[in-house]
């Protein structure tokens, strides 16, 4: 029996590494290794490194900064961690959602501030909660097309200082005042101002097409899939507990230390707060009052933070002496009805990306799904496990099947780590890569929902160790 096992090890190793077969005597082979997703004639694209600032609850230590300050810190630390020359990048792409008007192209401002060459183009994308996902896949597309060999992608969100506008009537009056040529015209316009004109327009996490806040949508989705308050609180507690364990165990190695000007050095996410079911049960409904099930405890909180990843062609990465973390393989974007299916992106995206990759759900070793709300995640899991939903809405003969919880978000998720809208995608992909290495898996699946009824999924493959 032992001879047969040795023979199997030997054969597998020789087939994969025939030019250095003798090393089989010294290096173990992973017998559970699956086929690689590498394709003949298709360029391999790799994640070299990923970093992020600590994700902080808005209104805390980052409160006096600006978005580009956080993005700059992420970029600077990416350079430090990789030792990458500042002129070795071909392009920089950043995702953000609520833009600071003074730095509308935050990618460019952050790149200049971080010391990148001013010859490197940079642009900013927005796709709600999957903005940095879009930044990464845009980078993948540019490398695949042969336009670039090395691209930095990332995302940033700063909820501590969102833009607040005057009312539209006040804006029109002020613009007219700026054009008025005579004193009489100015006085006439000033005289037309009423108290109601001073009412500000506050930004809201709401759908323009439905005028419904995302929290309301999450509450309705939870009700539609019979997700109880108890289930939501249990899942939220799970997220915080696992995040705390990962933080204490030093597993969140993508988090960098950041010296906030005039304040302390920040080195940890500050929203990780394991509570108790009893304490969570005391909170009242946050959106659908008084009988809703979505509360502050089972929702992701408003967060400040930035992330950055270095994506390269495998050939370029190896030529520069880098050891990649993972291959970035197939990805898809999906879109549904923004009213009734606003947050079901993962359910629709997961089977599509698996089909593109030629994989089944059982092939996936690591699942990293964005947790906007506990109710949203649990509704997705129930939808994925429903033949009726698959047949009625997805045109499938049978259910997608929900990911097993023993592989799902094991280092916490957005509910506990935080959710800077524009930055979460990079965190998901970097975490998936780190978990694959730590757990010895080969394939990871990242999925997320986004405003507008959109969603994203990507398959990540572990880089050979």
TrEMBL record:
A single GO BP annotation from the record? fatty acid beta-oxidation
Q: In its keyword annotation, does this UniProt entry include Lipid metabolism?
A: yes
Q: What compartments host this protein? A: Endoplasmic reticulum; Mitochondrion inner membrane; Mitochondrion outer membrane
Q: Spell out the InterPro entries in the cross-references.
A: Thiolase, Thiolase-like, Thiolase_acyl_enz_int_AS, Thiolase_AS, Thiolase_C, Thiolase_CS, Thiolase_N
Pfam families named among the record's database cross-references: Thiolase_C (PF02803), Thiolase_N (PF00108)
Tell me the keywords, alphabetical order: Acetylation, Acyltransferase, Endoplasmic reticulum, Fatty acid metabolism, Lipid metabolism, Membrane, Mitochondrion, Mitochondrion inner membrane, Mitochondrion outer membrane, Transferase, Transit peptide
Please give the catalytic activity noted in the UniProt record: tetradecanoyl-CoA + acetyl-CoA = 3-oxohexadecanoyl-CoA + CoA; decanoyl-CoA + acetyl-CoA = 3-oxododecanoyl-CoA + CoA; octanoyl-CoA + acetyl-CoA = 3-oxodecanoyl-CoA + CoA; butanoyl-CoA + acetyl-CoA = 3-oxohexanoyl-CoA + CoA
Asked if the record carries the keyword Nucleotide-binding, the reply is no
- SUPFAM superfamilies per UniProt: Thiolase-like (SSF53901)
From the UniProt record, give the pathway where this protein acts. Lipid metabolism; fatty acid beta-oxidation
Taking every annotated instance into account, which residue ranges of this chain make up the domain Thiolase C-terminal?
Answer: 323-461
The protein's job, in short, is: Mitochondrial trifunctional enzyme catalyzes the last three of the four reactions of the mitochondrial beta-oxidation pathway. The mitochondrial beta-oxidation pathway is the major energy-producing process in tissues and is performed through four consecutive reactions breaking down fatty acids into acetyl-CoA. Among the enzymes involved in this pathway, the trifunctional enzyme exhibits specificity for long-chain fatty acids.
What subunit structure does UniProt give? Answer: Heterotetramer of 2 alpha/HADHA and 2 beta/HADHB subunits; forms the mitochondrial trifunctional enzyme. Also purified as higher order heterooligomers including a 4 alpha/HADHA and 4 beta/HADHB heterooligomer which physiological significance remains unclear. The mitochondrial trifunctional enzyme interacts with MTLN. Interacts with RSAD2/viperin.
What is the name of this protein? Trifunctional enzyme subunit beta, mitochondrial
Give the species. Kryptolebias marmoratus (Mangrove killifish)
């Amino acid at each position: 029996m032992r001879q047969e096992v040795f023979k199997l090890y030997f054969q597998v190793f020789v087939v994969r590494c025939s030019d250095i077969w003798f090393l089989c005597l010294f290096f173990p082979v992973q017998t559970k290794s699956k086929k690689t997703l590498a394709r003949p004639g298709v360029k391999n694209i790799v994640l070299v490194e990923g970093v992020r600032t600590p994700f902080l609850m808005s209104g805390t230590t980052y409160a006096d900064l600006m978005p580009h300050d956080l993005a700059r810190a992420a970029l600077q630390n990416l350079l430090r961690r990789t030792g990458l020359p500042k002129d070795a990048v071909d392009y920089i792409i950043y995702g953000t959602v609520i833009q600071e008007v003074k730095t509308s192209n935050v990618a460019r401002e952050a790149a200049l501030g971080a010391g990148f060459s001013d010859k490197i183009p940079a642009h900013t994308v927005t796709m709600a909660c999957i903005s940095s996902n879009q930044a990464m896949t845009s980078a993948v597309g540019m490398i695949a097309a042969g336009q670039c060999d090395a691209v930095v992608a990332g995302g940033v969100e700063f909820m501590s200082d969102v833009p607040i506008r005057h009312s539209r009537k006040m804006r029109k009056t002020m613009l007219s005042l700026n054009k008025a040529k005579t004193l009489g015209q100015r006085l006439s316009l000033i005289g037309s101002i009423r108290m109601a004109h001073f009412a500000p327009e506050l930004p809201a996490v709401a759908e323009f097409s439905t005028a419904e806040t995302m929290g309301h949508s999450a509450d309705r989705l939870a009700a539609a899939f019979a997700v109880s308050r108890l289930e939501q609180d249990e899942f939220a507690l799970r997220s915080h507990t696992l995040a705390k364990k990962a933080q204490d165990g030093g597993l969140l190695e993508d988090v960098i230390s950041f010296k906030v000007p005039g304040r302390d050095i920040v080195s940890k996410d500050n929203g990780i707060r394991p509570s108790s079911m009893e304490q969570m049960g005391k909170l009242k409904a946050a959106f659908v009052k008084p009988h809703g099930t979505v509360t502050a405890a089972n929702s992701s909180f408003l967060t400040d933070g930035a992330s950055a990843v270095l994506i390269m062609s495998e050939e370029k990465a190896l030529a520069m002496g880098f050891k990649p973390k993972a291959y970035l393989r197939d990805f898809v974007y999906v879109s549904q009805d923004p009213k009734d299916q606003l947050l079901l992106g993962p359910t629709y995206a997961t089977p599509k990306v698996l089909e593109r990759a030629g994989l089944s759900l059982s092939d996936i070793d690591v699942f990293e799904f964005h947790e906007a709300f506990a109710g949203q995640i649990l509704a997705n899991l129930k939808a994925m496990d429903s033949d009726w939903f698959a047949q009625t809405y997805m045109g499938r003969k049978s259910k997608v099947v929900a990911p097993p919880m023993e592989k799902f978000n094991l280092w916490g998720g957005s509910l506990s780590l935080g959710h800077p809208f524009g930055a979460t995608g990079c965190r998901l992909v970097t975490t998936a890569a780190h978990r694959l290495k730590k757990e010895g898996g080969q394939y990871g699946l990242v999925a997320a929902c986004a405003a507008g009824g959109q969603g994203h999924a990507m398959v990540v493959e572990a880089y050979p160790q």
